[in-house]
């Protein structure tokens, strides 16, 4: 429910007056005249707050909590009918290096190594551990270093304040392993030499009802409201209001009741999510084709449009936090609720349209999704655009193997599962399904004429199965190292009876039935947008901060670059940088209108 906000006395601003073009000046730099940048000089507003926060997810409410100190008046404006955003759909984990719970258990997380780990994964093309700033530019390296310092402080502070309590992910009550951490929950890149603390950085909120993103959002929103934060839903912020000096003084929103103009005396903080659900942005910015995303339908990258009008520098636009989806679910609704993390099932492979494996099926979701983006320079196509998840009845009928997405529970059916008594019959049925889907488009991926099985698909799948079965019997995947890293073993599924070599692999049956699920690439959300500094201030193309404008979360350029460090790699920076931005926003001077 939206809270009431008291309106100031005075007439409402007309749309014509809001659209008056204004030449803005920031730090002596003249910004271009942008006809959609709202100029609000000399006008009255519908409501006023010291700090306005745009968005209703984890980053936005962390910013609201950071700002709601010492009597600061904070107003949250959420585009959707309810708060929560994509955070509410998530697992609710947040990745916090060197956190207080790790330290309490004696687990050390050396800063130099942790920053190098983040740098290696975020910017692998320039990473050099022996070079100054590990091969990165000074700004990017500084952002990673600042995150290492700020993240544990923020989480400890919000815990002491009573916002929420954290626990190390997968810590078993009553069981203490080495360092007090459950060693069955490793980091996604635990095997890298830079990772000196591969267990314990991922935290979850403590919640008797099971935690998750809903629990995290409930804790943040409940505390924010107790601090006096006002929340309005159904508020589609479309423009940023500035004064004649180019300082941000408010925002304009479209609401069910009409146009509204809100005054921010000190600053506006955006935590409005990425642009996964805006097809034009996805097509023009992302480095690979995707079919859908976990992001809620309102995540259309509005902040990119508004900040660009003020001359903001953009960064990391080609990247996203990636995940695979069941293709037919993404084609039906680009805002996909269910994601394919690390798929369970030991007698299962994924192949491309030629029937070839292209990666370890147990690779973490962000890494595996990038295999969809491989470009074939000879055929001028994406051969892995759609991948085909093939498995046998040993997986389909075993509740310990088919225990999660995308498998239906044993004894039940799902419309996206294709069956065949033999591999050739399965291939024919898969081709028929592709024919039915032909011409379907979702976000940035389409079932076009190139998305069809090769002429020798069935024969090649059988050869691929025979090769995989040999690896399974030996316990070693010579092609892609399936089951060779801690996370692949931990998340790859339970060990089948009689399999004492590699629990992630088991020979696929020599007789049917066989099953196939079509898999497409997608996102948790994008993570490119206006560039912010360590304080959360949005930077102009000149490098100077735009006065009164802050951002955090997936709506800004992520300091993670192309990486997904581990579970919670999205919400860790979102909460940390959101809280930091909100806290710094209250130190801004009051802007004149």
Automatic annotation (TrEMBL):
GO terms for biological process: steroid metabolic process. The keyword Amino-acid biosynthesis does not apply. It comes from Conexibacter woesei (strain DSM 14684 / CCUG 47730 / CIP 108061 / JCM 11494 / NBRC 100937 / ID131577). Gene3D superfamilies: FAD/NAD(P)-binding domain, Succinate dehydrogenase/fumarate reductase flavoprotein, catalytic domain. This is Fumarate reductase/succinate dehydrogenase flavoprotein domain protein. Residues 482-502 are annotated as: Disordered. The lineage of its organism: Bacteria, Bacillati, Actinomycetota, Thermoleophilia, Solirubrobacterales. Its cofactor is FAD. Residues 50-571 form the FAD-dependent oxidoreductase 2 FAD-binding domain. One of its GO terms (molecular function) is steroid dehydrogenase activity, acting on the CH-CH group of donors.
